């Protein structure tokens, strides 16, 4: 994975959300704080979730904005949020939420790279049990070799 897009500062192990909406806002706010997107992008992430669930299996959800949200993206970025306790995501348990902001054509490439890594249950376990952001970066780097 392009390491300039996934950076240590955007990997958080202290997710506090108790609901799907709170989790989307929490991970979306990291994208806003780090300057990847404008504040309107978070609302578009919630709209996108209302249209189609972003649950991917293996305790992973990948919320991202609608097509109309592209204007709110300043530069591509990812935010990773790990939760100690599962969040109910339309009846599925989620502990790993990866917020995606893909500028231009990068959106599908980012989705694809995340899907490749997280399709392997052992990679998701490594991320959930990681004690540092470096371990998460290493898992993504190895998974996309």
From TrEMBL:
Instruction: Write down the Gene3D superfamilies for this protein, in alphabetical order.
Output: Mannitol-specific EII, Chain A
Q: Which GO MF term does the entry hold, naming one?
A: kinase activity
The segment(s) forming the PTS EIIA type-2 domain are 4-143
Does the keyword field hold Membrane? no
Q: Which UniProt keywords apply?
A: Kinase, Phosphoprotein, Phosphotransferase system, Sugar transport, Transferase, Transport
What Pfam families does its record include?
Answer: PTS_EIIA_2 (PF00359)
A single Gene Ontology biological process assigned to it is: phosphoenolpyruvate-dependent sugar phosphotransferase system
Q: Which terms in the GO cellular component ontology are assigned?
A: plasma membrane
Query: What CDD domains is this protein classified in?
Result: PTS_IIA_fru
* Cited InterPro entries: PTrfase/Anion_transptr (IPR016152), PTS_EIIA_type-2_dom (IPR002178), Sugar_PTS (IPR050893)
Its function, per the record, reads: The phosphoenolpyruvate-dependent sugar phosphotransferase system (sugar PTS), a major carbohydrate active transport system, catalyzes the phosphorylation of incoming sugar substrates concomitantly with their translocation across the cell membrane. The enzyme II CmtAB PTS system is involved in D-mannitol transport.
State what protein this is by name: Mannitol-specific phosphotransferase enzyme IIA component
Give the originating organism. Metasolibacillus meyeri
């Amino acid at each position: 994975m392009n390491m300039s897009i996934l950076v240590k500062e955007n990997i958080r192990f202290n997710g506090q959300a108790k609901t799907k909406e709170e989790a989307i806002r929490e991970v979306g706010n990291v994208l806003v704080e780090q300057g990847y997107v404008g504040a309107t992008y978070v609302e578009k992430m919630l709209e996108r979730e209302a249209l189609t669930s972003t649950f991917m299996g293996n305790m992973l959800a990948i919320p991202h904005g609608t097509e109309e949200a592209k204007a709110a993206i300043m530069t591509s970025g990812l935010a990773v949020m790990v939760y100690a306790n599962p969040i109910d995501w339309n009846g599925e348990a989620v502990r790993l939420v990866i917020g995606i902001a893909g500028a231009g054509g990068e959106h599908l490439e980012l989705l694809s790279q995340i899907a490749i890594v997280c399709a392997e249950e052992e990679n998701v376990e490594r991320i959930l049990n990681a004690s540092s952001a470096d371990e998460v970066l290493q898992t993504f780097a190895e998974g996309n070799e």
